[in-house]
Amino acid sequence: MKKVFKLSVTFIDVLEDFGIADRLLGVTADNASNNSTMMAHMEEYYKEKYPDAGFSVTWNQVECMAHVLNLGAQQILKEFKQPVDKDTYEAGSDSSDDMVTAVSRLSFLCRKIRLAPKLRRLLEKVCKEKDVKYLVPIIDVVTRWNSTYDMLVRAVEIKDVMSDTFYQHKDRNLINLVLTEADWNCVSQLIDVLAPLKEGTLLASQNGESLMVTSMIPIYDYCTEMLKESLKIFDENDDIYIGIESAIEKLNHYYDKVSPMVGIALILDPTLKKDFLKNSLGWQVEWVDSVMDQFTSSFRFYHEKLQAFASSASAASVSTGTSPRGFGNYVKKRRTSDGDADGVEEFVRYFNAPLAEMGTNALLFWKTNQFHYPILSAMAKDYLTVQASSVSSERAFSSGTDLVAADRCSLGGDTIEMTQFLKYVL
Fold it and tell me: What residue spans define the domains of the chain?
């Protein structure tokens, strides 16, 4: 508990140092329990120090999309991690499920080739004989479900040369583990089940617009829908069926915890707006209506902020006898005339406008339309900066080992901080 408290204090100190503590909108973190505890401590701090900020775990915490998908995939794969004895090559499980035994044997064979120089050389020889590209099998790692998916895809790609390698090796025990055509069909079925989760993980792990929190609800819907379709091709007693059901249950658990802030951000995506929110899976009408009410309240808040800013700017120009010049300010003045004093016209205009084409860059859209929708564009600048995944920050931490190497181990903390900052913003 002391460590978690120290984590929240350190986080708050960083926010205060940068002068952004009172403007914190979203905190994206993985699903470790200490992060939720940290957020609870921060909620107490904000209630005392910044009561008007309305900071809360329910509103401001965003569960990392990539980690949620990982948890879902692990539910599917947990029955497939059956060991094979490295000495006798006998399966360490009495499972009768064909898919489970096929994947377990394949995992063992991939590891056998990868870790045995003699087998790798033989594999390379077979590839040359068959005039195919030499590719080494991928080893799956327990903590990274993507590695299991990658292992399966790579194995299917080189299945013929893999089989020939073991036949030429002439180890009868290994030959007995070689997959049959029926086994490979099972592997292909598992790949099809995992493919949507892999696609969602890649989307949530990229830099740029794809990381925006607006992608969370569509990714949840897509993965859940595809998993439900996969259930139709398996028997209820199959291990894979039970795993898929558990994965759907896991995804729904985190889907129910999605912050209303995510809904507001989705509405600000010009390719989706509120129609997608209404058509999303599992949301009660009351929740959607609540998001719309909070969207409206947030719109009014930003409208009041912009009016206050405009009034202070106008007073400053009068006192100095000057007025802002330039085409942009001219258009802005015309767009924010008294004809739309309460912002209702802008609000209605946005929702009545047709959806933007799929693939439209939301950030660029709001930059281009900042004078057409001044209030909504101000909201978008805040809400669309919230990330759907913590992968980018984890990537930044991991890259620190490249900077603080053995020949640069005396770098000061400030130097490391600024170097990493410049590396990712320039």
Answer: 1-62, 64-256, 259-389, 391-425
Residue entry with tokens 């100095």: 320
In this predicted structure, the answer to whether residue 324 has a pLDDT above a threshold of 60 is no
pLDDT at 155 over 90: yes
358: tokens are 């799929």
DSSP string, 312-352: HHHHHHHHHT----SHHHHHHHHHTSGGGTTSHHHHHHHHH
Cα-atom radius of gyration of the chain, to the nearest Å? Answer: 27
Residue-wise pLDDT for 367-424, tens only, equals 999 999 999 999 999 999 898 888 888 877 788 888 888 777 788 888 888 888 887 7
Neighbours of 316 (CB within 10 A): 11
The C-alpha angle with vertex 244 and arms to 238 and 247, in degrees rounded to 5, equals 145
415, 422 contact by CB (below 8 A): no
236/255 Cα distance (integer angstroms): 24
